[in-house]
TrEMBL record:
It comes from marine sediment metagenome. SUPFAM superfamilies: TPR-like. InterPro entries: AB_hydrolase_fold (IPR029058), TPR-like_helical_dom_sf (IPR011990), TPR_rpt (IPR019734). This is Uncharacterized protein.
């Protein structure tokens, strides 16, 4: 109850009367919990006066919700009724599991529509972006995955998931400079051994693996050039590049996907 502070009561009523006496659209709501231990009769009387001002005012689409506590609870500990009410009101904030998106624009549209309902701009939750990105990747919508994670990097630059996923995605595509960039940006924000291992593994692949030499030949001149490079390296007794079945398996998978 905002009227428990004696010094502010008259001021708040004056401002409320001035505001609600003017016509206009106010697509929003105000939720006031009252009957707490600090609410004496004077406090409740001011709340009743405020309620009258709102009800007789000229603002359209505004909702005032009073939540009287059954027991005079101490302090501002939220009651179960308050929590249930908030969960009910904001139940659509969590993106529905039954909706399948095709990309970032679908998420933007959903939360733009929700903004109209709530009366303020609602950002796409960070966790929702990551989860939906993973879902798109499972469906092999990799270009949309890239767009979505780039949006996360811009919107939530502290989010480590987006850097790691972009690094892995560009590594899969053979965009190794970008992959290294995102691994390093991730590590700048937090040192994580498994990300360091991925970065070290990529650098070793680029500098020491025969599979990378074959990959470059394939990407530059086609599969026949890659086969020729493989045979050349295999027959060269002076070759210092290592051969790894795992590297070649990964290369083959990335090329066909």
């Amino acid at each position: 109850n905002p009227f428990w502070i004696r010094a502010n009561r008259e001021y708040m009523l004056t401002k409320a009367n001035d505001f609600f006496s003017k016509e206009g659209l106010l697509d929003n709501f105000l939720f006031i919990t009252n009957n707490a231990s600090g609410d004496n009769e004077a406090t409740m009387e001011y709340l009743r006066k405020f309620t009258t001002i709102v009800e007789e005012g000229k603002k359209r689409d505004f909702t005032l919700i009073l939540n009287p506590l059954e027991k005079r609870e101490v302090g501002i500990i939220p009651s179960p009724g308050l929590r249930k009410g908030l969960e009910t009101f904001f139940e659509k904030y969590k993106f529905p599991k039954e909706i399948e998106i095709d990309g970032l624009e679908d998420l933007k549209e959903y939360y733009q529509n929700l903004s109209q309902v709530y009366g303020y701009e609602v950002d796409i939750p960070e966790f929702t972006l990551i989860r939906q990105g993973d879902g798109l990747e499972e469906r092999n919508k990799l270009e949309e995955v890239k767009i979505l994670y780039e949006y996360v990097v811009e919107k939530y630059p502290h989010d480590l998931n987006s850097y790691a996923r972009l690094a892995d995605l560009h590594r899969r595509w053979g965009n190794y400079n970008l992959s290294i960039k995102y691994y390093e940006q991730c590590l700048e924000r937090k040192k994580m051994p498994f990300i360091e291992r991925r970065l070290n593994s990529l650098n070793k692949y680029l500098n020491e693996s025969a599979a990378y030499a074959v990959e470059k030949a394939i990407r530059n001149s086609g599969i026949d050039a890659g086969i020729a490079k493989f045979q050349e390296l295999k027959s060269d007794s002076q070759n210092k590049l290592y051969f790894s079945e795992s590297d070649f398996n990964t290369l083959g998978y990335n090329l066909i996907t």
